[in-house]
Amino acid sequence: RIPLTSSGKVDRKGLPDADVSLQRAAFVEPRSDDEYAVACAFADLLGVEHVGIHDGFFDLGGHSLLAVRLVAHLANATGRELPIRAVFEHPTVEGLAQALSEIEAGVIEAIPVADRSQPLPLSWQQERLWFLDQLAEGAGAAYHIEGAMRLRGALGREALKKALVCVVDRHEGLRTHFEQMDGRPVQVVSPVGSFGVDEEDVCGLDEEDISSRVKVLLGRRFDLSKGPLFRATVLKVAEDDHILVVGGHHTVVDGWSVDILMGEVAVHYGAFVQDLQAPFAPLAIQYGDYAAWQRDVLNAQRLDEKAGYWKDQLAGVADAISLPFDRPRSMKADFRGDHVTFDIPADIADSLKALARSHDATLFMVLESAFAVLLHRIGGDDDLVIGTAVGGRPRAELEPLIGFFVNTVALRHRFEGDEAFDELLTSNKQMIL
Questions:
Q1: Per-residue burial over 18-56, b = 16 or more CB atoms within 10 Å of its CB, e = otherwise
Q2: Sheet holding 198-201: strands in order across?
Q3: Which of 35, 68, 103, 175 would disulfide-bridge 30, Cβ 3.0–4.6 Å?
Q4: Greatest extent of the chain over all pairs of C-alpha atoms, in Å
Q5: Cβ neighbours of residue 98 under 8 Å, at least 6 residues apart?
Q6: How many Cα neighbours within 13 Å face the side chain of 11?
Q7: Which residues contact 238 (CB under 8 A, 6 or more apart)?
Q8: Is 337's pLDDT higher than 80?
Q9: CA torsion, points 154, 156, 157, 161, in degrees to nearest 10?
Q10: For helices 33-46 and 93-101, what crossing angle results, to 10°?
C-alpha cells in the first residue's frame, strides 16, 4: 500500500523498499504522484498486493460497481473528479493517471451534518418507494429485504442481541420511519436504545413447522408511517441450534447495506463474547445527512437538466415489450415475481469475460446486451427498454452507511439491420456509460 498524505501526495518517507522478487516481470513502478494515487486505489479496491503502471483495472478483477468506487476514492485522495467513462477509456494506471493530471484540482466539500432542528427530508430514492407504497396496497413483501441464518453450536444469545442493538443504534437509517408534515413525508429517527430483538422458543417443533414460522416472520408487512422498518428475531431450536431472522423495508436498507450490517454484527458479537468493546469509531455522517445533502445538491435547475436527459432518452418508447405470453397479462401488478438459478459452464464464462476485456467492457455489459438480443428475437421489437439497478454511492463517505442508495435506470436498445454483436456491444457500452 502506498502511503499518502492528507492532500493526496505520496509520503515518500513511508515507502518501503520494493521487493523485486514479489513483483511480476511486467511490473513498472509508478513515476508520479498521480500514478501512485491510482495504483494505491487499485490495490485497495481490488485486493492486489502489487500494481504496475500498465496493469488494467478490469484485467485485475474490476467491475462497474468497483469503477464507481474507484472514481470516488480518487476524488477523495486528489481533489479531482473523473467521469466514470474515464475508467473504461483509460483502464490502466498510466492511462488513468494521465486523465487525472488533465483535471484541475479543487476542493471537494464533505457532506455536512444536517440541521436536526428541522424535519429531515426523504432522499429521492426513499420518496420513490414511499410513493409506491402509497400507490400499491398489494405490494406485500415486494420491497422487503430479509433473510434467515441457521446458527449451529454454542451461541451467546445475549451477546448476539447486544450486537444487533449496537449496530441499529450506530446507524440512524435502521431506526427511521416516515411521517407526513404539511402533506410531505419526512424522516423520523427513533432514539438510541429504542430497538429490541425478539426471541422465540421453538424447541420441540419439527422442521416443517419451524420453516413455516420463519416464513411468517419474513412475510410481516412494514408500516412506513410507524416503524420499526427493521426487525430481528432469534429462534431457539435447541441449546446449540438457533435461527436468526432479520428483515427490513427497502426504504432503509439495500443489498450493499446487508454486507455492512452482517459484518458489523459479526465484529460486535466477536467482541462481546470476549467482554471487549467493538472497534468502531462513530460515523461521520448518517443517512439523514446524505438525504438533506442530496436535496440541496440536486436543486431545481439540476433536476430539470437530468429530467430533460431522460425525456430525450425515452422519447417515443413503447409501453411494453412484445413478448408472446401463454396467458392474458393482468392489467394490475400482482408482484408475484420469481427468480431462476442456473449454472453457466466454466468455458463459456471464460469466453464471456474475454469478450468483455477485448472491448474494455464489463461482464454486465456483455450479459445485458445478450439479454437485449434475446428479447429482440423473441418479441421482434427493434426498440426496447430494460431496467437495471445502480449502486448510487458516488462518494467515499457513503460506503460505510446502512441505507437505501440504489437507483433504477432505463437502458434503451435500438436494433438496426443485421449488425454484428461486437457492434451492438460497443454501442450499448456507450449507452450504459
A1: eeeeeeeeeeeebeebbbbbbbbbbbbbbeeeebbbebb
A2: 144-152, 241-249, 230-238, 198-201
A3: 35
A4: 71
A5: 34, 90
A6: 10
A7: 203
A8: no
A9: -140
A10: 130
3-state secondary structure 355-371: HHHHCCCCHHHHHHHHH
- The residue type of 14 is G
Cα–Cα distance, 220 to 201 (Å, whole number): 19
Q: Which three cell numbers stand for residue 79?
A: 481533489
Banded model confidence at residue 342, pLDDT cuts 50, 70, 90: very high
Find out whether 177 and 227 touch, Cβ atoms under 8 Å.
yes
Q: What angle do CA 284, 406, 255 make, to 5 degrees?
A: 80
Output the pTM of the full model.
Answer: 0.84
**DSSP state string for 39-90:** HHHHHHHHT-S---TT-BTTTTT--HHHHHHHHHHHHHHHS----HHHHHHS
Instruction: Supply 20's cell numbers.
Output: 523485486
Residue 241 CB neighbour total at 10 angstroms: 16
* Cβ 120 vs Cβ 189: under 8 Å: yes
Confidence at residue 1, expressed as pLDDT on a 0 to 100 scale = 43
Mean pLDDT of 153-162: 95
Query: On the CB side of 327, how many CA atoms lie within 13 Å of its CA?
Result: 2
pLDDT digit string (tens) for 92-148? 999 999 999 998 877 788 899 999 998 999 999 999 999 988 887 656 678 999 999
DSSP secondary structure code for residue 345 in this structure: P
Cα 255 from Cα 133, distance rounded (Å): 19
Rg over CA atoms, the chain: 24
Which residue spans within 391-425 are E strands per DSSP?
Answer: 407-414
Say if CB 194 and CB 229 are below 8 A apart. Answer: no
Look at residues 266, 242, 233, 236 and name the one whose alpha carbon lies nearest to residue 146: 233
